[in-house]
Amino acid sequence: MSNTISIPQSMLPEDGRFGSGPSKIRPEQVSALVEAARSPLGTSHRQAPVRQLVASIREGLASFFHLPEGYEVALGNGGASAFWDMACASLISRRAAFGTYGSFSAKFAKSAASAPFLEDPVIYQGEMGTYRLPELTDGVDAYCWAHNETSTGVAAPVRRIDGSRGQGALVLVDGTSASGALPVDVTQTDAYYFSPQKAFGSDGGLWIALLSPEAIERAANVEHSATLDGARRWVPPFLSLTSALENSRKDQTVNTPAVATIIMLENQIRWLNDNGGMDWATARCAKSASLLYSWAEKSDYARPFVTDENARSHSVVTVDLDDAISANQVVAALRDNGIVDTFGYRKLGRNQLRIGVFPSVEPADVAALTACVDYVVERLAD
């Protein structure tokens, strides 16, 4: 049925990419790759041209996040998924507590549960479409959750758990689909980490972490101190946060990175900072998200999935459709017209649209998208 629907050209967004990750890459970032075709693409990542890009990334992120005194920017290969394992190896001493409320917030907890050198984690589980922060727990040395749950479109607060400092516990927050799109006070965390394929408009495969002095000290102690049984914890070189930080201070990664990712990331960070940094980026995302939530609330057939307005994400918006309307058909019809990646998270299993509204997405294109959805739904009902 979707093949019979042709949306008028005048209604279409100028750019039809609304993915929740990988997300839209601006043409200027691609132009930066073309300009780098002779150098630094295809050259050593340990030489000046690439290291200068990494230095710009680290300096740009320190500015964007208003990095506090003593905090450092570290980066390495593998994406946020690798950082979960790195945190298990290098940042959790014995036991962690997790807030889980979706697919991605639960994955870090699963990594900790499978680590043979850690005690079983304490899980504070929330319902889908809500968030749940971990609570102060005896014997815990790290509290972990996601700033934004990509699978459900839920944004959670970022604040230290009351009493956690007295325990000497760290706060580790996954900012993958939040960083660059949602406001954050990094002082409330010890590791705020993310991958660049969302608001930072690049490809995946890289992790970035904003580390407090306490996190840096914890990693050194865990990696070099004896455990209770007298043995040292085996930390593979790839998962050593200390090694990653030492290399980051030299503006390089431990292993060979995808230089194209670094080029696009550096370009995006400069673009964000040149336009006004975090304040500008988060306001732009909030505007786009508001367009979608307002449209859904006024619609006869759509409604926001997240009922608590304070928990609604401004980076990934989820909208439920009435059962009489197939979200799959709507998504397919949109794709036929060049509007892509509006599908819901498959494991959530809802009749739903999921729209990425990261800074690279023009608010005017979001407004056009709502009109196109209405156009498609009206014709599907005929």
UniProtKB/TrEMBL annotation:
Q: Name the enzyme's class.
A: transferase
According to the UniProt entry, its GO molecular function terms are:
O-phospho-L-serine:2-oxoglutarate aminotransferase activity
Please give the residue ranges the record annotates as the region Disordered.
1-21
Pathway note: Amino-acid biosynthesis; L-serine biosynthesis; L-serine from 3-phospho-D-glycerate: step 2/3
Reaction equations catalysed: 4-(phosphooxy)-L-threonine + 2-oxoglutarate = (R)-3-hydroxy-2-oxo-4-phosphooxybutanoate + L-glutamate; O-phospho-L-serine + 2-oxoglutarate = 3-phosphooxypyruvate + L-glutamate
Name the coenzymes or cofactors required.
Answer: pyridoxal 5'-phosphate
Protein EC: 2.6.1.52
SUPFAM superfamilies named in the record: PLP-dependent transferases
All residue ranges annotated as the Aminotransferase class V domain in the record: 42-340
Which Pfam families does its entry note?
Answer: Aminotran_5
What keywords appear on the UniProt entry? Amino-acid biosynthesis, Aminotransferase, Cytoplasm, Pyridoxal phosphate, Pyridoxine biosynthesis, Serine biosynthesis, Transferase
Kindly give the InterPro entries that the UniProt entry links to this protein: Aminotrans_V_dom, Pser_aminoTfrase, Pser_aminoTfrase_mycobac, PyrdxlP-dep_Trfase, PyrdxlP-dep_Trfase_major, PyrdxlP-dep_Trfase_small
Q: What does this protein do?
A: Catalyzes the reversible conversion of 3-phosphohydroxypyruvate to phosphoserine and of 3-hydroxy-2-oxo-4-phosphonooxybutanoate to phosphohydroxythreonine.
What PANTHER family does this protein map onto?
Answer: ALANINE--GLYOXYLATE AMINOTRANSFERASE (PTHR21152:SF40), AMINOTRANSFERASE CLASS V (PTHR21152)
Homology family: Belongs to the class-V pyridoxal-phosphate-dependent aminotransferase family. SerC subfamily.
Protein name in UniProt: phosphoserine transaminase
Tell me what organism the protein belongs to: Bifidobacterium amazonense
